[in-house]
Design a protein that fits this description.
Elements: E1 4-9, H1 15-23, E2 28-34, H2 38-48, E3 52-54, H3 57-62, E4 67-70, H4 77-86, E5 90-94, H5 101-114, E6 118-121, H6 129-138, E7 145-155, H7 172-188, E8 192-201, E9 207-216, E10 221-227, E11 229-240, E12 244-247, E13 258-263, E14 266-271, H8 279-289, H9 300-318, E15 322-323
Parallel strand pairs: 1-2, 1-4, 2-3, 4-5, 5-6, 7-10
Antiparallel strand pairs: 7-11, 8-9, 8-15, 9-10, 11-12, 12-13, 13-14
Helix pairs in contact: 1-8, 4-5, 5-9, 7-9
Length: 326
Amino acid sequence: MSPIRWGLLGTARINRLIIPAIRASARSAVHAVASRDAARGHAYAGTWNIPNVCASYDALLASDIDIVYVSLPNSLHVPWTLRAIGAGRHVLCEKPLALTPDDARRVSGAAAAARVVVFDGFMYRHHAQSPRIAEVIASGAIGTLRMLAGGFTYVQNREHDVRLDPALGGGALWDIGCYPVHFGQWLAGAKAASVVATADIGTSGVDERVAGVVTYANGATLNFFAGFRAAYDTHMHIVGTEGTLDVPRPYRPDIDSHIVLRRGDEIQRIDTAGNAPFVDEVRDMEDAVLGMKPPPVALEESRTLAATIVAIHESAGTGTARHVVD
């Protein structure tokens, strides 16, 4: 069987993680990269040993590739995902796929009409840790889930970074706050009903710190935070009626990950080791493209996430609670 040919739409830093994951699979090959700067594109291809360079994004979509990896700034995800779909290409788009629920609907509808596969790039959902977490909760080990609490912070100090540009969909909430919000909606077992949040807007014009509470229709809650002005930290704490579950590496589990179950005085460390980051996401993409298995994460989740984050931004801006309109 000929390898599945991947094309990289852009030369973003995140590519350094996806390229090894693609090459870890015998079914795939990194076939081409596109850059609007020809010299940069050729230099990048030389560094990463990519055989083909396209002088424009449209040229990449017109080339002999099967899957497009979109790693552009957030505001460009939907336009280029739709163009890739229109060219008949499957798409793995870096998170968040869409910044509004209507845009998420457009992508979902276009993908269904074109019969192509589109993934929203939340790699943690493809790693072995996620089904293990779901199994522990489904077993009743923590009782009924009542609350989640988690966040993601790091120091963003790169000048002119796209994450600090409001016109490009920047801000801590869209960049890293989307992780705990996505994680919460996955486990809550119900749709988000309302949110209340606060944020600090930096001189860049984007939210550099955000925190809030999401309340779901079944009464469960998510307390979350994210920020660009604090030391690196990721975690998720899951509280039930009979116990708790701690997830030290919720958003980028790795080959040596684990979770901790607590029931009263009993503490159990549960191994959730799996493949290196992004490897399973690539494999799930391949399976879906080859018609072997359906995508494990539905695009409906992208719409729900966008609706929730839009409401969080509105709440932070007004200082009042907001209903989530999906």
